[in-house]
Amino acid sequence: MTTSTPEVVAARYAGTRMARVEDTRLLTGKGTFVDDVQRPGMLHACFVRSPFAHARIADIDTTAALALPGVRAIFTAADLNHEVVEAWHAVAGKDVPDTPRPPLAEGVVKFVGDPVALVVAENRYVAEDAVDLVDVDYEPMPALADFRKSPDSGVVVHDEYPDNVAGGMGGMPPDEELFASAPTVVSERVYQQMYVPVPIETRGLVVEWSSAAGELTMWASTQTPHELRAFCARLLGLPAQRVRVIMRDTGGGFGQKVVPMREDMCIMLAARKVPGALKWIEDRRENLMSAGQSRHVDGTVRMAFDDDGKILAADIDFVQDVGAYPTPYPVLTTAAIGMFFPGPYRVPKASFNYKTVFSNTAGLHAYRGPWQYETLSREVLLDIAARRMGMDPVELRRINILRGDEMPYFNPNGMPYDHVAPADTFEQAVKILDHEGFRKEQAEALAQGRYIGLGFSAYIEPTAAATGYLAHEGCTIRVEPSGTINVYVNGGSTGNSIETTVVQLTADALGANVEDVHTIQGDTAVTPYGAGTQGSRSGPMTAGAVNEAGTAVREQLVTLAAHALGVDGSEIELRDSTALSRNDPEKSITFAELAYRAHYEPTQFPPGMATQLEATARFVSQAMIHWANATHACTCEVDVDTGHVTLTRYIVSEDVGPMINPNVVEGQVAGGTVQGIGGALLEQLSYDTDGNPLSSTFVDYLLPTATEVPPLEFGHVEIPGPGVGGYKGCGEGGAIGATPAVINAVNDALAPLGVTVTELPASPATIVDLIERARP
């Protein structure tokens, strides 16, 4: 009797708009976030933070704070920093040179909010009172608040970097001869402000050390539970099997929770020194002041065009602020700004050069599409170029955008585009918008004294980049004795609904009813190793892992069912959580009946026949990159008296390959788009000239709300990628494409006034000032 696995039946759940399995729990308030975790004898931590951007620490007196009833301990750098064994992150690897990152400030504080001491008390209220009693003697020093002034500031942030340059890179040098001779050359300085992810749930940890067992358990708000476990083991010099990370629900991450930061290190180190579990929950002011910064780039971009509007060359030269203590992820991805600058266009020659510069501000961290500046600067420049050449920006893009029949295509920096057709998403967005109809409407509005505008933005981005530890993902699928199916994956779900998509994929892989499938994620004690949620990798990588494990379990089901039904394995079909014979549908057995026999009556099967219904498998991606692309289109109206911008329509046409769940894809695109809108018009993390933060509350840091965002319209192009199922990532695209689309719409509206916004955000004050300066 052969037991070969029959062909998999057509997908029943993947591709459908299935309701999210986690929503009932979350919408009824039954989620479990870090602050919901309670442990016996739990203590609470609060940080003493520097009020100065740059100062020497002359002395720290904890006497009064320790005398406060309820205070259990106070730790300074002298207590914690020397206990660090290793502190490298897998995203960079142990052999890549890294910038300084001490747990607590040692000798010198380097930004307002720099953690100086850690107070542990019976509750958070006492801990915060004690923080005010810690007397730190500071000797203020000059601070470098604006990274653009670094060469002339006379301030050195880190002694190891006397010029404040953390790193840099240059590609091919620009072809200055070509730029000098081209019919049209457009050059602009584009400045992107500092803004941040602002997850609903701030950072947080509960760390419990069992000295008797020599084991540490951590409940964390993280995107990468397995990497957090590995980092903690390295930090403390513990065997990895002695560390367990449990991640339940996480209220947003957006890159900020990919790698552990300095406060996380402090809690891990201090947990072994206190008599109970130690909880730290970041408050909103700390999050805005100390959790890091994002974006913040200043650069000059150039493009050369021939007489027909074809791009001849592109060049970008930029500087990015990395703050005082950057995490390694965004520093490494800064190079991507230069590498990706040609974008989804036919660009014969490209060049780039960049530096990353320290400043006395919070350190750079990852944020949804950390290379977004390449799209922002390029797309803003294209619109400026089109107006200068007397063309519509749509026509200029149409001339230069890459088509599917040109794939594979290597951009001039060597990036290998394939399985994409940027022209398709572009034309779909133009059609949905009714471009010609809008231009007529715009002319009529201008005649009435109203300023309305249209902005486009096109991009291409790598998803599921299969490099280093990101190149593989594990999955365990187990059919329980009841016949229900549990699928175990690393997780890291922070709103991107891996729970739902994994259930859909597993149900299809096994021919099961979706209500029979459940998922367990985020617990390193029971889930296989995975790299978590980052780099738009979750969809393609978990699909591959589920396919590997699902194939093995499917073969097990077929083998056992074939014996139970007395038919050849090639006759078995799996559907509706049932194995049945194609030739005789009367012969069938449910998964529940089969699992019962396998678990409770295994002797019914022949000797030597394995009765397990479980497999753990590891998917290793053979495709280095799954390229996704999209076009964003935005219309707006600008009140030229107040500078207020009202968005009137917003369209996204995106190719992420086949969609596992269109609801989830559109939710991801929508969430990123709203963040991009905030970055265009509202959000700004500001410092004064002395390095004091000016936007550490929501009174000063403005976020987009439902009133600022029009209904989003979606178009989908489905070009399969190179991996399992053809799936591509979709997590970052909205945040990448939205900001330039909005800025281009604003600039299009203001073009009759000779106004162009190239310094973000396009706040009312900025717009009014530009209009005033443009008037004769």
Quick take:
InterPro entries: Ald_Oxase/Xan_DH_a/b, Ald_Oxase/Xan_DH_a/b_sf, Ald_Oxase/xanthine_DH-like, AldOxase/xan_DH_MoCoBD1, AldOxase/xan_DH_MoCoBD2, AldOxase/xan_DH_Mopterin-bd_sf. It comes from Mycolicibacterium arabiense. Helix content is 29%, strand content 25%.
Q: Can you offer a commentary on this structure?
A:
Keywords: Molybdenum, Oxidoreductase. Pfam families: Ald_Xan_dh_C, MoCoBD_1, MoCoBD_2. Residues 28-142 form the Aldehyde oxidase/xanthine dehydrogenase a/b hammerhead domain. This is Xanthine dehydrogenase. One of its GO terms (molecular function) is oxidoreductase activity. With 776 residues, the chain is of the alpha+beta class. The protein has 3 domains: 23-31 and 467-620, Aldehyde oxidase/xanthine dehydrogenase, molybdopterin binding domain (Aldehyde Oxidoreductase, domain 4, 2-Layer Sandwich); 34-141 and 202-250 and 257-290, Aldehyde oxidase/xanthine dehydrogenase, a/b hammerhead (Aldehyde Oxidoreductase, domain 3), CATH 3.90.1170; 382-462 and 627-774, Aldehyde oxidase/xanthine dehydrogenase, molybdopterin binding domain (Aldehyde Oxidoreductase, domain 4, 2-Layer Sandwich). 29% of the residues lie in helices and 25% in strands. It is built from 20 helices and 28 strands. The strands form 7 sheets. The protein has a 7-stranded mixed β-sheet, with helices on both faces. A 5-stranded mixed β-sheet has the order 7-15-14-13-8. It has a 4-stranded mixed β-sheet with strand order 18-26-27-28, with helices on both faces. The longest helix is centred in the last third of the chain and has 28 residues, at 538-565. The protein starts with 22 loop residues before the first helix and ends with a helix.
